[in-house]
Design brief:
two-stranded antiparallel ribbon, 1% strand, single chain
Length: 304
């Protein structure tokens, strides 16, 4: 078998229990004020009820769809596949664009998000995993967000990007991109634009993202025999533009493409591929056919 072009999943360290994070300047005042950030979180959820007040004008619905799609790509193509896993390369300018769009999803800064995600892969389904479904479905879905152990930025796990001052700034001021987005929604479609384009869109995006941590570790199919509970879930893949092919991802996390086969819809991959045609991103990593088929053959043998 030919030598793989890129390394598969990183070697896991011994499992260790998580500890309470120490907050510092890279986390920003909002993270250090837990009661206020949680009030904002639940307030955005509650503000979705204002749809019964503002109605559903077409421009507001279109804004909701647009902000959802763009910010999903900021999380999947930016935070996840670029910052957390370095599955492709880009310029420093577009790197900041990705960080800004991802941060506008109101899921904190790029250093926190990606450092925490790397920790998930290092300790998947074991002590130290921030959102293991073994702690319960609700905890894996969103309960972990309120666990003080994971509130601080794990700088030691994201040193490669923590060296950039602009990323340090956006990580510390992670409230700024969402606020800018909310203001833009107001100028585009008034208060209906804020409710639909920010509140509803953000809430749906939160739970779509969370479903990768919860649903894709509970429901679905397993093509590859990974040492975790990751599963391929088609409806999560549709909601998250490709992240639901989670067993594929845990098998070979260095890939910019989560949907390994043509029938596994992966919109994020299609967008990254299109960006590569214009030289905006490059060196997109994908698994070789031999790596992909190694797991597929295992399933066929078991089914025979």
């Amino acid at each position: 078998m030919a030598e793989p072009a890129i390394a598969p999943a990183e070697t896991k360290a011994p499992k260790k229990a998580g500890r309470k994070q120490d907050f510092s300047t890279e986390d920003g005042w909002l993270t250090r004020t837990a009661w206020f950030s949680r009030t904002i979180y639940w307030g955005i959820h509650a503000s979705c009820l204002l749809v019964f007040v503002v109605g559903a004008p077409v421009e507001a619905l279109a804004l909701a769809a647009g902000t959802y799609v763009i910010r999903v790509l900021g999380i999947t193509g930016g935070y996840h596949r670029y910052f957390a896993h370095k599955t492709y390369k880009t310029s420093r300018v577009f790197q900041f664009v990705l960080a800004w769009i991802g941060c506008s999803a109101t899921q904190k800064g790029p250093l926190w998000w990606c450092g925490t995600h790397r920790r998930h892969h290092r300790y998947t389904d074991a002590p130290g995993d921030p959102h293991s479904p073994k702690e319960g479905f609700y905890y894996a879905h969103q309960g972990w967000v309120f666990d003080s152990r994971w509130e601080g930025t794990p700088v030691e796990g994201i040193k490669d990007f923590a060296k950039y001052p602009e990323l340090q700034w956006i990580n510390e001021h992670h409230w700024a991109p969402p606020l800018v987005l909310a203001v833009l929604c107001y100028f585009i479609a008034g208060w209906a634009g804020v409710v639909w384009g920010f509140s509803v869109s953000t809430t749906l995006l939160w739970h779509a993202t969370y479903s990768v941590n919860s649903a894709s570790h509970v429901w679905g199919t397993r093509r590859y025999d990974t040492d975790d509970t990751s599963k391929n879930n088609w409806w999560v893949a549709l909601l998250t533009m490709g992240e639901g092919w989670h067993n594929n991802h845990h098998y070979y996390m260095a890939s910019a493409r989560n949907g390994f086969y043509w029938w596994e819809v992966d919109v994020t991959w299609y967008v990254l591929k299109a960006l590569s045609w214009f030289g905006i991103v490059w060196d997109l990593k994908v698994p070789s056919a031999e790596i992909r088929d190694g797991g597929a053959r295992r399933v066929l043998r078991e089914a025979a």
